[in-house]
Amino acid sequence: MFSEKGLSREDILKKLCEVKKDDLDWKSGKAFGYIFDPGEEILGFAKEINNMFLSENALDFTVYPSLLSLENDLVSIMGKHLGGNDDVVGNFTSGGTESIILAVKTARDYYRNKKPEITEPEMILPTTAHAAFHKAAHYLGIKTVSVSVDPETFKADVPAMEKAINSNTIFMAGSAPSYTQGVIDPISELSRTAEENDVWFHTDACMGGFLLPFFKELGKKIDMFDFSCPGVNSISVDLHKYAYTPKGASLILHRNSAQRRFQLFAFADWLGYTMINPTIQSTKSGGPLAAAWAVLNHVGKEKYLEFARIQLETVEKIKQGIESIPELHMMARPEMTLISFGSDKVNIFHIIDEMNLKGWYIQPSLSFDNIPATIHLSVTLSNAGREDEFICDLEQSVEKAKKLLPGKLLSMFNLVMDQGGAEDLSENLSPIFELAGIKDGRMPQRMAPVNEVLDAMPAGFRKELLLEVANTFFSSQS
Ligand SMILES: *Cc1c(COP(=O)(O)O)cnc(C)c1O
To answer: Ligand 1 mean position to 206 CA, how many Å?
Structure first.
């Protein structure tokens, strides 16, 4: 729809409220993902500051010295927060993914200069590393080598990672903590190994970079993961997660500016303005940067420490609750605020659907590399105070899920596969997905049948199928 004469504000608002009706209700406090809600006062202030800088354009730091100074201040604050000295430099980005792509790009260009003989660069990642690294590799023409993690602790296996290093290796990464299982990799050993082999080491602290230092201050034992490990070259840290700033706020930090130099892009050979971009975006609103700076300083260290304490307690209560349900077990020992649990006895996809019907949003992680499918929770401030209700509903959902039969859809899928349907997957599966209720860009309310099928597929098929489905979702038909 593109209105001919322009609609009234009331009509636009009405329309938008209508399209929003099926969205995740993040104000309910029942979502364990996607949303980091600091509450009305802080969010209201963030919106005000975002609006104050909405029209300013961070494309050109010479025209907006305000934005340059706010960016440098955020980098300096977070550099020190993460064990760095005055040499640490960095940039404000749109999110963890952009920070990670920039880290990989910087390393690629650093080694292009240092070791021009490497023409087919490789990066080594634990299987828990965020998909954003694979996206970076996909965009930047780098081969990825995935190394299984320890199946008990879900931490990167240092000797196995070391063994994967060859003469083409330019980059290695670890997480603090990993998204799904919420554990911190042995960054100290990993980064030492990388350094000894002249390989770039990146700590992905998108989740933990802001919060872990506060956990440490609360007396929790946190393994070293930041610039205090001499082999760490760069760190990604999101502010739009546990710093509770509006979305579009992350930092890429480098140990020094000689290194960061390889991140920048400049271009003068055209008929336009000389372009100098430290990040991927060119024209970008000053809003998210100013709002991030404002929220950080408005909340302040003391209150963030209080937030950390509340979140720690919430995680502990939820963890104990899960452990009290005999059909469920924790996958890993949570080191921050991320919880992963599973079941050998009940289909977790049905548990998720049942929870969904009770208004909770919890996320499945499909099976991979001999690890079965699990349920992930990102615990945030807005979940505090709802622990008992959550566990009570979880218990009931487990009971209900026990009584649900295994999916008909899965048997159909297996039949198709047995008949050699893997040859042309997208064609053979579309009737199955129609049956599952995926239609017109909408997913069915009960996702278990779909998840069961996805989970039964090899990861390569899963990817192809999701590409097909997404390609139809983003179209004028939906
Ligand atoms: C969220 C996250 C990312 C990706 O960040 P986006 O802001 O979603 O782009 C990368 N790594 C980890 C560990 C994360 O939790």
So the answer is: 5
